[in-house]
Amino acid sequence: MGTIFGCLLGYSGSYGFIYLFKESLEKLGLENPQPHLSMYDISVVAALTIGLFLLTAVIPARNAVKIDPIEGLNQ
After folding, report:
1. Domain co-membership, 27 together with 4
2. d(CA 62, CA 56)
3. Alpha-carbon distance values, 45 to 16, 35, 74 (Å)
4. How many domains does the chain have?
5. How far apart are CA 25 and CA 31, in angstroms?
6. Whole-angstrom Cα distance, residue 75 to residue 71?
7. Angle 32-33-37 (CA atoms, 0-180°, nearest 5)?
8. pLDDT tens digits for 18-65?
9. Which member of 22, 33, 65, 74 has the greatest number of CB atoms within 10 A?
10. Contact 3, 46 (CB under 8 A)
11. Rounded CA gap, 19 and 42, in Å?
12. Count of CA atoms in the C-beta half-sphere (13 A) of 39
């Protein structure tokens, strides 16, 4: 759900940026600038999000497994 919300937020941010700076973008040579969201973009964002989620879940779990419960109680 976060990935979908993030994609929509990014798309709306791109649309807002283009709306605000349309004249400047046209002066740079872009004719009729439009935001473009492809399946590749969504896949990359989803893969990076899942990878980051797994990384942030695995590292604390590995550290928790290494701690001896008795030693943890003594600290």
Report:
1. yes
2. 11
3. 20, 16, 43
4. 2
5. 8
6. 6
7. 135
8. 888 888 888 888 787 777 778 898 788 889 988 998 888 888 877 777
9. 33
10. yes
11. 22
12. 0
Q: Which secondary structure element, helix H or strand E, spans residue 13, and what is its range?
A: helix 2-20
**One domain, residues 75 and 44:** yes
What does the block give as tokens for 65? 């497994």
Reported residue count of the chain is 75
Structure tokens at 67: 């701690």
Pair (30, 54) in one structural domain: no
Distances in whole angstroms, Cα of residue 10 to Cα of each of 6, 35, 37:
6, 10, 10
CA dihedral in degrees (20, 24, 25, 29; nearest 10)? 160
Structure tokens at 51: 């990878």
Amino acid in position 31: E
28 and 60 assigned to the same domain: no
pTM for the full predicted model: 0.47
